[in-house]
Design a protein that fits this description.
The complex is a heterodimer of chains A (about 180) and B (about 425). With about 180 residues, chain A is of the alpha+beta class. Chain A contains seven helices and three strands. In chain A, strand 1 and strand 2 form a beta hairpin. In chain A, helix 2 crosses helix 3, helix 3 packs across helix 7 and helix 4 runs antiparallel to helix 7. Helix content of chain B is about 40%, strand content about 20%. Chain B has an eight-stranded mixed β-sheet with strand order 6-13-12-11-10-7-8-9, with helices on both faces. Chain B has a four-stranded antiparallel β-sheet with strand order 16-17-20-19, with helices on one face. Chain B is globular, with a radius of gyration of 22 Å. The N terminus of chain B is likely disordered. Classes of the chains: A alpha+beta (about 180), B alpha/beta (about 425). The interface between A and B is medium-sized, with 20 and 17 residues.
Chain lengths: ~180, ~425
């Protein structure tokens, strides 16, 4: 059951049972982005309010598995009130964490039979370094709890669903002229 | 455990399991408990051997060679067609049994060939809300392309087809195409009765037998269908082979579906003449080894007996309904008809509010393979008010110990999330 405990950490279950920033924002003025995982029917709706380059408010609605919903909740807590540039950096860092090879996480929890499969695909490794982002799980706070998802490749899309929606929302806010700068 | 069928023949799942090499493997140190046969079933050694033997001794393209080995391949392939015909009691197997890639392709073949040949703007096609996407999307595409009208039989509170006003619904329909067994609910609609009404209204009738044909005796005459679609890989056969059975006069009248080698009598630069049945609908090199594997699978099923397999499925489903109900009470809901008279061995489960993907993930740690998702039936999911279900499904190699393992794993999932 060790792999399963890596996936369903207590922090994740806590955010699943008691999601933070649950609800909606009036849109407009807030951006509203829906994201679906067609494979499993997970659905996340992200509402975000950007004022003067700051993500001043965020709300999450939708339904889905514990990973998609807890990731959205953890995300909302991590980005609320942060400058948009910092949020964009965090999105990049989180997505890198989700694409990193598990053996690079240094958790010592390498799965028995999953190692063989994963070692064949070196692309993920390269992809992480291409981004030029160094992953320091310590610096990610509660979000680091989601790194166990990497061991369950089919669930990675669940974890990144809300983050993709957030990135899209920031782009839409920027093109709407609310934000002056984009990366 | 032994299950006694009505005819007195019995099934011994432990002995049967010994015929399936894959069922001897372990997952994470636990016995593999395979409860996903509704998605794809496993293979007895004789199916694998039949295909290996073909590749090792007889492989050649069919319908083209004059040498002895090619003739042998040809004979094996056509014998497979006859086996399929016998299995579904087709009156004219040599003409009416078409090999396709899977049930999806069979259903598409009818929508594209029969549909485009026979349906005009405003023509009515009757389906149900519990259909698999394979029996929805081809018709939705046709509706978009030429404005046919789709009507749907609904679902009642007991997860059965709502037949209220069915005479009005089928009135004027050109084709009625329905599942014989829902891949989500297990529901088996009263197909023969519906077919009678549909025929009386002048409609052609198609049956999606992907879930039904592997589990119960199938007789196209008794069902009263004009087309029957099913897949080899859900009935112990390999992937890549499906079947469309069709009434000969309908098939004769239909234009080819795919064009290419094997399906023509003559080709000129200004046109072509299609071949006769069944080759008119088999363009290109067909799945030869797969047809031979499917024939071996049918032989295996027939040796055990479809009556006995059906009885075993009912017995196991009944055991599961009772056990899950006793053990989890109101925390667990089975989305499908109660009892086993008009349902198959497909159990869509909602357990507390644990998401099906989380449930399937936790069950996997116990070696229990179930499927979580929308099962290619999104309109049905919307009707049920869910985005996904967790589905366990049974076949002849499953027994009560597998159901016990499912229940134990569900309890573990409950402990993890609460």
């Amino acid at each position: 059951m060790s792999g399963l405990e890596d996936l369903y950490r207590e922090i994740i279950l806590d955010h699943y049972r008691s999601p933070r920033n649950r609800g909606e924002l009036p849109s407009p003025p807030a951006e509203r982005v829906e994201a679906f995982n067609p494979l499993c029917g997970d659905e996340v709706v992200v509402y975000l309010q950007v004022d003067d380059g700051v993500l001043s408010d965020i709300r999450i609605s939708g339904q889905g598995c514990s990973i998609s919903q807890s990731s959205a909740s953890l995300m909302s807590a991590a980005v609320k009130g942060k400058p948009v540039n910092e949020v964009r950096d965090l999105i990049k860092t989180f997505k890198s964490m989700m694409s990193i090879h598990e053996s690079h996480l240094g958790t010592g929890a390498g799965g028995e039979d999953r190692d063989g499969t994963a070692s064949q695909d070196g692309e993920d490794r390269g992809g992480t370094e291409d981004e030029g982002v160094l992953i320091d799980p310590e610096a990610m706070g509660e979000l680091a709890a989601l790194q166990g998802v990497v061991k369950f490749p089919v669930r990675i899309k669940c974890a990144t669903l809300s983050w993709n929606a957030l990135a899209q929302g920031l782009d839409e806010a920027a093109s709407a002229g609310d934000v002056g700068t984009t990366d | 455990m032994e299950t006694l069928s009505a005819s007195g023949t019995s099934i011994d799942p432990v002995a049967i399991r010994a015929d399936f090499p894959i069922l001897a493997r372990e997952v994470g140190g636990r016995r593999l408990v395979y409860l996903d046969s509704a998605a794809s079933s496993q293979h007895p050694r004789m199916v694998l051997d039949a295909m290996d033997n073909y590749y090792e001794t007889t492989h050649a393209n069919v319908h083209r060679g004059v040498y002895a080995m090619a003739e042998e391949a040809d004979r094996l392939y056509e014998n497979a067609r006859t086996s399929v015909g016998r299995f579904i009691h087709a009156p004219d197997p040599a003409r009416e049994v078409l090999f396709t890639k899977n049930a999806t392709e069979s259903l598409n073949l009818v929508a594209y060939s029969w549909g485009r040949h026979n349906l005009q703007r405003g023509d009515i096609v009757v389906l149900s809300e519990m259909e698999h996407h394979a029996n929805l999307v081809p018709w939705l595409a046709l509706a978009e392309e030429r404005g046919i009208q789709l009507r749907f039989l609904g679902i009642d509170d007991a997860y059965r087809l709502d037949l209220t006003g069915i005479e009005d619904i089928v009135a004027g329909a050109k084709i009625v195409s329905l599942t014989l067994m829902s891949n989500v609910l297990g529901t088996m609609p009263p197909f023969a009765d519906i077919a009678r009404l549909a025929h009386a209204a002048g409609a052609v009738v198609m049956a999606d037998g992907a879930q039904f044909v592997p589990h119960l005796p199938t007789d196209v005459g008794a069902l009263g269908c004009d087309f029957l679609a099913f897949s080899g890989h859900k009935m112990l056969g390999p992937t890549g082979i499906g079947v469309l059975w069709g009434r000969r006069d309908l098939l004769e009248d239909m234009p080819p579906f795919l064009g290419g080698g094997g399906m023509i009598r003559d080709v000129r630069l200004d046109g072509f003449v299609p071949s006769e049945l069944p080759w008119k609908f088999e363009a290109g090199t067909p799945p030869i080894a797969e047809a031979i594997g499917l024939a071996a699978a049918l032989e295996y099923l027939e040796a055990i007996g479809m009556e006995a397999i059906g009885a075993h499925q009912r017995s196991l489903t009944s055991y599961a309904q009772q056990l899950l109900n006793d053990r989890f009470g109101g925390d667990l809901k089975i989305m499908g008809p109660a009892g086993v008279d008009d349902r198959g061995g497909v159990l869509s489960i909602a357990y507390r509010d644990i998401h099906p993907h989380d449930l399937a993930q936790v069950l996997d740690q116990s070696g229990v393979c179930i499927r979580a998702g929308h099962h290619c039936a999104k309109p049905l999911m919307r009707h049920l008010g869910v985005t996904a279900t967790a589905r366990a499904s049974f076949y002849l190699y499953n027994d009560e110990s597998d159901v016990d393992a499912l229940a134990d794993a569900l309890a573990e999932a409950g402990n993890l999330f609460w």
